[in-house]
């Protein structure tokens, strides 16, 4: 179960995958992949994250590659389409990449955009998916309480499933929930779970109706299951623009949750223009399958990151491994 640094660096491959749609301000996604006794795992904290935060992502990858995973209670995971903050005209094109998804997560509150852009985007989504479809919003903490309340009113006519991380802080989420309770619009916590010292604090504070949980930032599927159980709230499993290998870890977590009342944010392989497995884990009929995946050697070669970037990731892994050793 203990992964030595040499074992990880002995199999690690670093890739740079082109995105189909610019997302989080980038058009390529870098990821490190390595193999342990249980299979392949992904280590892909975003580039700007410091070592202390990234080390938990490494713990998750080591867990997935070296440890027996929790038993599944389902073999397919219903997933949502994820719509970056694109212009309204592009909405049908992006949604066409998701086969059979009845739920769309729409990114809103993008820096440099205005509420009018969000309204136009959400209107285009509702037009594309019809009245039966579900629309949830993800603001990534981009609004203050007043802006979030105003946006909720402006977007109410589109019948929203929930608001994900509308505001940045737990106190703001508590305040917003109090204001929204009159019309029963649930609030989901994402950054307040995965970036907090205490991921359960947001639940204890009464700041969320449901939690978004991600295997990599929380240290792996087993740790995420403990957090969900301790929080006592419904959970949506999501990803962070992972390759299909990282998504398979998310699917492992989603498959093991006792209850899965919402579609999960694990359909994001559709945002990649290339992947590391021959059959990417894109939604089919609105769901992805559960199970381990093996990267395709030719794809690893074709999308290998340049040597300078490969070395950067190897050094990052070594530093994060030292952080984990110091924590143990
Ligand atoms: Mg989110």
TrEMBL record:
Binding locations of Mg(2+): 138, 164, 190
Protein name (record): o-succinylbenzoate synthase
Active site: 107 (proton donor), 214 (proton acceptor)
Cofactor annotation: a divalent metal cation
Gene giving rise to this polypeptide: menC
KW Plastid (keyword) present: no
Catalytically driven reaction(s): (1R,6R)-6-hydroxy-2-succinyl-cyclohexa-2,4-diene-1-carboxylate = 2-succinylbenzoate + H2O
InterPro entries listed in its UniProt record: Enolase-like_C_sf (IPR036849), Enolase_C-like (IPR029065), Mandel_Rmase/mucon_lact_enz_CS (IPR018110), Mandelate_racemase_C (IPR013342), OSB_synthase_MenC1 (IPR010196)
Source domain of life: Bacteria
Keywords assigned: Lyase, Magnesium, Menaquinone biosynthesis, Metal-binding
Enzyme Commission number: 4.2.1.113
Pathway, per record: Quinol/quinone metabolism; menaquinone biosynthesis; Quinol/quinone metabolism; 1,4-dihydroxy-2-naphthoate biosynthesis; 1,4-dihydroxy-2-naphthoate from chorismate: step 4/7
Free-text function comment from the UniProt entry: Converts 2-succinyl-6-hydroxy-2,4-cyclohexadiene-1-carboxylate (SHCHC) to 2-succinylbenzoate (OSB).
Limits of the Mandelate racemase/muconate lactonizing enzyme C-terminal domain: 88-183
